[in-house]
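Propose amino acids for all 471 sites.
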């Protein structure tokens, strides 16, 4: 049987219902699950965000006293074994006269990113906003402008959700412990409880409303021995008391399984997992997660780091992550003058051009019903009447059999297909026929998109994918 699909397509277009990764398995969510689903709604819809690592470390940009310091740019104090008393005077040099919050928001939007997570405070302890409880903040620089306030206003204007990365670890604060081993300050003078009180006051400033409604508090540095499970629970509770809607990542607590980012077994605070520089091999049933990744090899700007990933690589990563039900938080490290590196802007624009056409296959989608696909990835959305739209992300366009059409196999799928089209292609003829292992789509010889073409197919009912017979 071969079905021509174009005419039927019009019958089932219409508004798409959102659904959480949880509502298939638990029709009656618990109160805790319902609370999580409410908080995570925008996050699950967004799928793609911009990470921004920016602070004093952008000034040395990976080089200290003429020496190239290894590792990520924002780790220069630690990796260069720099004294806090030598590092902190960088504050007097921070004057990013090219900083333009609207321009940053424009770049994020150009890429199709829906949220920004910026370092309110990284491990060096420097506050990028006007903090009442610290003089190690942006108001103590020659720049004297509250960067987070300007960004918050620009995000509000541009419809971008603002979020803050906030480091628990703090290398310069006098009360933080443990001190770095080369730090000559007397550890007996440090009082960790007092440090936590200080951190909470900073968080109160950030979530007070001055910076708008904050989407995520993205904690980090929880691996230090001074941070405990009890402190994690307490901090999560404190943040929730400030705003019950704030999403909190799992680095608030001690449950994270290293760079893989998901929690070890047990009950831990935090709403979602944070794989770092890696993409999980499969989706994670019932769990929300977000892979954070650098475009080159550093988070904070480093002048020597030219190891840029290509735009097609990152587009494939975005599809891969969405096909496993996760979000992609892609980093930029602005330069000391406040500009996002040109290499990053260029790549974000290319990703954005792809998203312009294919974004509907990413935003608000859920994980693929297939364990794997030989030619690419898949995401899905629920349609009215219990039907489903699958978005097939074709990375490897099939080779032509007869020079006229190509065949794309969809292995193991047993539902009826009632419509199909390629996103962004005006003349793209497709017909579907059943084959012994599922369906075969007859598609044009030329891929509509050289990086990743997306074919949307509409199915009757929820997807049913069975085992595929060995050839
Ligand atoms: C790491 C690093 C840090 C970076 C973060 C982003 O934990 O310590 O520099 O901010 O990853 O995920």
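Proposal:
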């Amino acid at each position: 049987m071969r079905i021509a699909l174009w005419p039927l397509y019009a019958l089932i277009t219409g508004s798409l219902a959102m659904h959480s990764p949880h509502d298939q398995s638990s029709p009656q969510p618990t109160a805790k699950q319902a609370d999580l689903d409410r908080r995570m709604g925008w996050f699950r819809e967004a799928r793609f965000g911009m990470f921004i690592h920016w602070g004093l470390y952008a000034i040395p940009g990976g080089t200290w006293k003429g020496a190239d310091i290894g590792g990520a740019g924002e780790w220069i104090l630690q990796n260069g074994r720099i004294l806090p008393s030598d590092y902190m005077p960088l504050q007097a040099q921070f004057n990013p006269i090219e900083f333009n919050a609207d321009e940053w928001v424009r770049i994020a939007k150009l890429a199709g990113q829906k949220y920004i997570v910026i370092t309110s405070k990284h491990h060096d302890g420097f506050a990028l906003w006007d903090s009442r409880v610290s003089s190690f903040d942006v108001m103590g620089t020659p720049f004297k402008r509250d960067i987070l306030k300007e960004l918050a206003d620009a995000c509000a204007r541009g419809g971008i959700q603002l979020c803050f990365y906030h480091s628990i670890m703090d290398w310069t604060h006098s009360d933080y412990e443990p001190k770095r081993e080369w730090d000559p300050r007397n550890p007996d003078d440090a009082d960790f409880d007092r440090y936590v009180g200080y951190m909470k006051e900073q968080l109160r400033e950030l979530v007070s409303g001055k910076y708008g409604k904050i989407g995520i508090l993205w904690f980090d540095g929880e691996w230090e021995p001074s941070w405990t499970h009890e402190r994690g629970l307490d901090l999560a509770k404190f943040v929730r008391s400030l705003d019950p809607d704030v999403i909190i990542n799992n680095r608030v607590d001690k449950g994270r399984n290293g760079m893989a980012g998901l929690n070890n077994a047990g009950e831990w605070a935090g709403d979602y997992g944070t794989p770092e520089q890696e993409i999980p091999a499969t989706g994670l049933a019932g769990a929300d997660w977000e892979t954070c990744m650098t475009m080159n090899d550093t988070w904070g700007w480093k002048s020597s780091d030219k190891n840029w990933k290509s735009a097609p690589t990152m587009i494939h990563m975005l599809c891969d992550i969405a096909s496993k039900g996760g979000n992609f938080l892609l980093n930029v490290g602005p330069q000391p003058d406040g500009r996002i590196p040109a290499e990053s802007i260029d790549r974000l624009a290319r990703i954005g051009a792809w998203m312009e056409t294919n974004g509907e296959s990413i935003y608000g989608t859920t994980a693929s019903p297939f364990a794997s696909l030989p030619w690419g990835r898949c995401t899905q959305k629920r349609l009215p009447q219990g039907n489903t739209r699958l978005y097939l992300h074709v990375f490897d366009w099939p080779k032509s059999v007869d020079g006229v059409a190509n065949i794309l196999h969809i292995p193991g799928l047993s539902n009826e297909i009632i419509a199909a089209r390629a996103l962004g292609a005006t003349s793209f003829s497709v017909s579907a026929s059943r084959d012994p292992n599922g369906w075969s789509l007859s598609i044009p010889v030329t891929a509509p998109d050289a990086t990743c073409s997306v074919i949307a197919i509409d199915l009757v009912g929820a997807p049913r994918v069975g085992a595929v017979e060995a050839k």
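The chain has two domains: 2-20+366-459, 48-361. Residues 6-26 have pLDDT under 50 and may be disordered.
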